Amino acid sequence: MKLYSHPFSTAGRPVRLLIAEHGIACEEVLVDLMQGAHHQEPYASLNPGKMVPLLDDDGFRLTESSAILKYLADKYDLPEYPKALQARARVNEAMDFINTQLYRDFGYGLVYPQLFPHHRRRTDEAHAACIEWGQKGAQRWLRVLNDHYLGGGRQYLCGDQISLADYLGSGIVSIGELVGCDFSDYPNLRAWLGRMKQLKSWASVNAVFEGAVAGNKGKEFARV
Ligand SMILES: N[C@@H](CCC(=O)N[C@@H](CS)C(=O)NCC(=O)O)C(=O)O
């Protein structure tokens, strides 16, 4: 089995974390996003969407981090994706919430436009409006995570057991650290992220990402 990804990738880090935590035999293939390798052959033909991650399980190719996490959990019978109907529905619910509501405003509205030149809007006004919109939306969705998903003393997004939603969620929430978010307004979320960072593989999986966080320290950004 091969995982095509990049160590910095928001969508790749949750998959790499799950693989590392469970010691799943999987070769990591670097797709050098910084050099545009995802737009070139041979990768462009493997994934017409030209994004990472991509899992190749003996010729069965799968994109979308959420689908890859679920596939691995089913294949290796991992407890992070419960089989009971309603428990599984809760995990799916949280993953969809994170991947749509939260990621859209937090990642694509607030964080990425401040970091990546190709996310810059055409005019300064349009750019500022995008960031303001993303910031407001992100605050709303982070509040839901903090008060609802992680309210009532819950340790993880779907209760007291870690699930795939925590893997996906910690990959996406942590991108706020690239623009200096410390999540002090969201104490349950902050504690949960700290809990995820205690996983034995977090540091090794996220080393490149944490390097980028350190490199942005002290810079001015709009944050939540
Ligand atoms: N919905 C996809 C998103 C994948 C994605 O956004 N990948 C980014 C890296 S985190 C990428 O490949 N970006 C390349 C580009 O934007 O050109 C998933 O969850 O797998």
Briefly, what CATH class of the largest domain? Mainly Alpha
Percent helix, as a range, is: 40-55%
Number of helices: 9
The number of distinct β-strands equals: 4
The kinds of small molecule bound in this structure are:
glutathione
Structure notes:
The protein has 224 residues and is of the alpha+beta class. The chain has two domains: 2-75, Glutaredoxin, CATH 3.40.30.10; 85-215, Glutathione S-transferase Yfyf (Class Pi), Chain A, domain 2 (Up-down Bundle). Helix content is 52%, strand content 7%. The chain has nine helices and four strands. It has helices at 12-21, 43-46, 65-75, 85-115, 124-149, 164-173, 187-197, 202-205, 207-215; strands spanning 2-5, 27-30, 54-57, 60-63. Strands 2-1-3-4 form a four-stranded mixed β-sheet, with helices on one face. Strand 3 (54-57) and strand 4 form a beta hairpin. Helix 1 (12-21) packs parallel to helix 3. The longest helix is centred in the middle third of the chain and has 31 residues, at 85-115. The radius of gyration is 17 Å and the shape is globular. The N and C termini lie far apart (38 Å). The mean pLDDT is 97. It binds glutathione (GSH). Glutathione (GSH) binds at residues 9-11, 33, 38, 51-53, 64-66. The site of glutathione has 11 residues, from helix 3.
